[in-house]
Amino acid sequence: MMPWRRSRLGIGRRGESMLVDLRDRILAQGTIPKLPDSWLVESALSSAGGSPFAGDFVVATTRADGRRLEVAVVDVSGKGEAAGTRALQLSGAMGGLLGALPPDQFLPAANDYLLQRDWEEGFATAVHLSLDLETGDYQLRTAGHPPPVVRSAGSGRWHVIKTEGPVLGLIEGVSYDPAGGRLTSGDALLLYTDGMVEEPRRDIELGIDEMLGVAEHLFRRSFDGLAERLAAKVGSRDDDRALLLVHRR
């Protein structure tokens, strides 16, 4: 970071070091817990323009003695340091809520938290996955977020999972309806932010189709490392990007 940038941010070298430390903490929040060998779960994060700060993040934890995975992919409004600072605060709060609340209460609680912050750009989108690691049964809830997609190993086709809910931080007293399903051996699920599929003057459906076409080509080698490889191939370089892959081996 150049000296004039530190001046504009109102921080010195020590403050810059603190922000880098906080950035590392947000990445740690998204660390995937140790899971049974029958599951592969990977995340990838990229920031707009190569900035060290991003408004997209992942939080993850296990519950029920490791039998259930709870994970959320979140996109905070804005870009750069401002969005990154809000993301740092929100990731800590959401990480706590994710491990403490039943799945149906997580997004409403996150919505209440954002409303209480009263930030100037105080909204965010999110997708929340609650996955039973023994049965493969899952519930998905979204808050103003691009739709998750699932690949059936039996048919070899990707399908968009339709689930909708209001953006976090705008409306009081909202609820979020789940979409459910079951992942069987060979199936895969992708959760992602809009930077993966949206570009100016292009329909989001075309962006989703492009992402899935690239994913299908890449996974023929292996699902291992697919999240990073896919995030490197598709999406807008002018927007933050986050991607989560869930694959049942």
TrEMBL record:
UniProt keyword annotation of Hydrolase present: yes
Pfam families documented for this protein: SpoIIE
Keywords: Hydrolase
Keyword Signal: no
Listed InterPro entries: Bact_Sigma-Reg, PPM-type-like_dom_sf, PPM-type_phosphatase-like_dom
Domain of life: Bacteria
PPM-type phosphatase domain sequence ranges: 36-248
GO molecular-function terms, A-Z: phosphatase activity
PANTHER family: STAGE II SPORULATION PROTEIN E (PTHR43156:SF2), STAGE II SPORULATION PROTEIN E-RELATED (PTHR43156)
Name under which the protein is recorded: Serine/threonine-protein phosphatase
Gene source species: Nocardioides humilatus
Lineage: Bacteria, Bacillati, Actinomycetota, Actinomycetes, Propionibacteriales
